[in-house]
Amino acid sequence: MLSIAFAARLEHGTCAGARLVVSAIAAKPRTITGAGELARGRPLDAALADDLGRLAHKQCHPLISVPYDADYRRAMVPVFVRRAVLDAGASR
Q1: What is the pLDDT of residues 25-63, one digit of tens each?
Q2: Predicted TM-score of the model (pTM)
Q3: Torsions phi, psi of 41, nearest 5?
Q4: What are the tens digits of pLDDT across the range 10-22?
Q5: Superfamily of domain 3-90
Q6: Ramachandran area for residue 55 (φ above 0: left; ψ -120 to 50: alpha; else beta)
Q7: What is the residue extent of each domain of the chain?
Q8: Which 3-state string (H, E, C) describes 6-31?
């Protein structure tokens, strides 16, 4: 009951813009503030994936009304973000 959407625009191998959205943590999907700025000028690599995961984790507090463990879903946010960023980097 958690999903991540990550999109990046690359120029010359580095990120020129990015958006990160997390769902199942609020009444509607939430855009992670500062993700684009953090990613700008960086390659889509493990270091960026970890940094974006930490940023998303700080901003995500899952709803308790969803019938799944909120603490587990919050703990999985950085894992899902890492996967999404690395998958985007691998598909370029």
Answers
A1: 667 888 999 999 999 999 999 999 999 999 999 998 766
A2: 0.88
A3: 85, 5
A4: 999 899 999 999 9
A5: CO dehydrogenase flavoprotein, C-terminal domain (3.30.390.50)
A6: alpha
A7: 3-90
A8: EEEEEECCEEEEEEEEEECCCCCCEE
